[in-house]
Amino acid sequence: MGRLQQIIDEVHGSRDVQERLYSSFPTRVAELCTEEEVQEIILKLEALATEWETFSARSPQDGDGQDDIWRDEHRYAELLRDLLPRFPDSTMTGLANKNARVRFWTAWTISERPTRFATPHLQRAMATESDSQTAKMIRKALESCSRPWWRFWN
Description:
The structure is a single chain. The protein is mainly alpha-helical. It has one domain. Helix content is 71%, strand content 0%. It contains 9 helices and no strands. Helix 8 runs antiparallel to helix 9. The radius of gyration is 16 Å and the shape is globular.
């Protein structure tokens, strides 16, 4: 397994707790990540999705707790987005994950950092997607990849 948590801890260093919990990961985290960490991020998104499902079933009225999990998912998805240009093959594996939330966040990643490389992967994912929210995000990612400005990130 990679060293994602070690990288995050090293880079966060002396940042205060509020910054660590509520802000995006510093750019340096992405710079230090390798392909192994991409797989760790996808596993982390899967663990957070499971946590969200469990939490939502147990405490459906607790929006604050759900927001905290969503915030963590978003932070890891942003990190995945920053790694997409360097590790596109590994990032695309998230589209085939068994969990719809992982597929959603992977598609979000691609919609934020579109690349022509992702189009066939998104088309395959769209053909089998059963979750309506994830299907919407995959469509958004496909639209983003079809726009001419994606060239800036390839």
